[in-house]
Inverse folding.
């Protein structure tokens, strides 16, 4: 149980275009979803936190107009990288958590999406 | 503010040897502690967590960790490692459980050699 998927797993796009990454909780309702960014051989940096039906809360230094996050349902959150540039190339990982009793106080991570901007 | 320090960026070890990956944290309030493992090009998998209770926590794949409040440490141990344990290991803290944000350490690369 508690499976989180991401799509696509790998995407290449041209500079200036936008790309959307989906994060889905497959077998539970995710009241909160998190988006992380990970550069090669580095740790995960939290970009934003989103609660279903609410605007995302962005971490300091993350451009909210560039990284659009939508948490439209209890099983789906999307991250759209707008006007992507080569410096946006990174590994993006989402995680989901639930306030239900069965899944308490734990984040479940997706497999990640490798974005390469050329 | 909370912070996490993983003292070793890389730990090489021979197969079947014991290993300890060190983690220290800083916080003025009580925290929850986690260890995650990441295999290449994959997301994170939870190894174990400390929320409360017994300070010795057992996790998956034979790993365990001990919470030491006085030393603000949460070191990860395994008595005998396998080649398949080669991966990146992250220590993380959270203020009020996993659905609050996690603060990650820089990670420790465990390399198990035959």
């Amino acid at each position: 149980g508690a499976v989180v998927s991401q799509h696509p797993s790998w995407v290449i796009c041209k500079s200036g275009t936008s790309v959307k990454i989906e994060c889905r909780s497959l077998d539970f309702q995710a009241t909160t979803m998190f988006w992380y960014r990970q550069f090669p051989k580095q740790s995960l940096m939290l970009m934003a936190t989103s609660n279903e039906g609410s605007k995302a809360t962005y971490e300091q230094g993350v451009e909210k107009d560039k990284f659009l996050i939508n948490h439209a349902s209890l099983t789906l959150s999307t991250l759209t990288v707008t006007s992507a540039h080569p410096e946006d190339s990174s590994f993006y990982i989402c995680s989901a958590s639930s306030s239900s009793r069965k899944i308490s106080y734990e984040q479940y991570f997706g497999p990640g999406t490798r974005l390469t901007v050329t | 503010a909370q912070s996490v320090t993983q003292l070793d960026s890389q730990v090489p070890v021979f197969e079947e040897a014991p290993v300890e990956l060190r983690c220290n944290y800083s916080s003025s309030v009580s925290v929850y502690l986690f260890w995650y493992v990441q295999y290449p090009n994959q997301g994170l998998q939870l190894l174990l967590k400390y929320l409360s209770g017994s300070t010795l926590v057992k996790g998956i794949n034979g790993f365990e960790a001990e919470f030491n409040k006085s030393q603000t440490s949460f070191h990860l141990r395994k008595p005998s490692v396998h080649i398949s344990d080669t991966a990146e290991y992250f220590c993380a803290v959270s203020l009020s459980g996993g659905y609050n944000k996690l603060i990650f350490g820089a990670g420790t690369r465990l390399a198990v050699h035959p």
Observations:
- Chain B touches chain A through 22 residues (CB under 8 Å).
- The first strand of chain B starts at residue 3 and ends at 6.
- The CA atoms of residues 31 and 92 of chain B lie 10 Å apart.
